[in-house]
Specification:
The protein has 156 residues and is an alpha+beta fold. It has one domain: Nonspecific Lipid-transfer Protein, Chain A (2-Layer Sandwich). Helix content is 53%, strand content 17%. The protein has 7 helices and 5 strands; from the N terminus they run H-H-E-E-E-E-H-H-E-H-H-H. The chain has a 5-stranded mixed sheet with strand order 3-2-1-4-5. Helix 1 packs across helix 5 and helix 1 crosses helix 7. It is globular and about 40 Å long.
């Protein structure tokens, strides 16, 4: 059941990353620090699915079909760790501190992707949930949040 739910959550997280990389100023600023054609994979250790594979192209994320290699691999140690984060029971910073996530690649770029992911979570979850899983709740564009939800429903 967790694996099925995580497939859905990974799918919406991927769509949100792609959409917000085109429209959110904070994410665009973070993306400007990644090299062009930088490939990122987000997955669960020893599992081929669910997985998110992205590439930075023209200062935005696009889906990367080639999952054989990546410049940065962010791996949850197990399905339970991924479930806690994707259901907003735990924050990303805390998950890293508790060693629930393995990072393969340059730590600098891993931190950039973590900041981008936190911004995406801020759009996906309401403020009362975010204040429990984030150290700092940044303001977001509520109109963009509505567009994200519509985009996710129509394109999803």
């Amino acid at each position: 059941m967790k694996k099925f739910l995580l497939k859905i959550l990974f799918f919406f997280f991927k769509r949100s990353l792609i959409f917000l990389s085109k429209h959110d100023k904070n994410i665009k600023d973070e993306l400007s620090n990644l090299p062009e054609n930088y490939r990122i994979i987000l997955k669960i250790h020893n599992m081929t699915s669910p997985m998110i594979s992205l590439m930075k192209v023209n200062d935005k994320f696009v889906e990367n079909i080639d999952t054989s290699s990546a410049d940065l691999i962010v791996e949850f140690k197990n399905i339970n760790s991924a479930f806690l984060i994707f259901t907003a029971q735990k924050g990303l910073e805390k998950a890293f501190a508790e060693k629930r996530i393995i990072l393969k690649g340059l730590i600098t770029y891993g931190i950039i992707f973590t900041r981008i992911s936190i911004i995406v979570q801020r759009y996906l979850f309401p403020a009362f949930i975010c204040k429990n899983i984030m150290k700092h709740i940044m303001p977001i564009n509520n109109m963009l949040k509505i567009k994200l939800y519509i985009y996710g429903i129509i394109k999803g």
